[in-house]
Amino acid sequence: MATGDVSEPILSDSGYHVIHITDKRGGVEGKTTETNVRHILIAPNEIRTMEEAQTLANKVREQLEQGEDFTQLARKYSDDPGSALSGGDLGWTEPGVLVPIFEETMNNAEIGVSSQAFQSQFGWHILEVSERREKDLSQERAAQQARMAIAETKYDDELNNWLQELRDNAFVDIK
Prior knowledge:
Strand content: 15-25%
Number of helices: 4
Number of domains: 2
């Protein structure tokens, strides 16, 4: 909504609200870059050492260079139970969600190009960035602030109702 706009009536537990934007201030501006990424994780386990995991990751990377399909290789080799079946797809990720080395490699990767194998605390990864987009956080932050303000108001109302009920039901016997 822009300055001067009036909202449609909004129903909440407290009743109907109509919002008129009289002014906008800072504090809710901002953009972030989201990245659509997929990866193959080769993790060490009881029968595979970290060195063997690295060797396998490099072998998978060579197969990618020879033109093999990332999705098929992820389904075949990835040890990530959350993404292996979907071809390694992690979906859209925001900054600060993934481990630092993964995020750094992802941010430096070219779109559509598989990365070199790199190590994290989970094992060896190969990633591929599908696309990037800018996400405007201002509306999301404003909505969150509005929800918090409504929740605080509702909390205060309920607290006052409870205190009044306690006072109404209190019995004092003066002798």
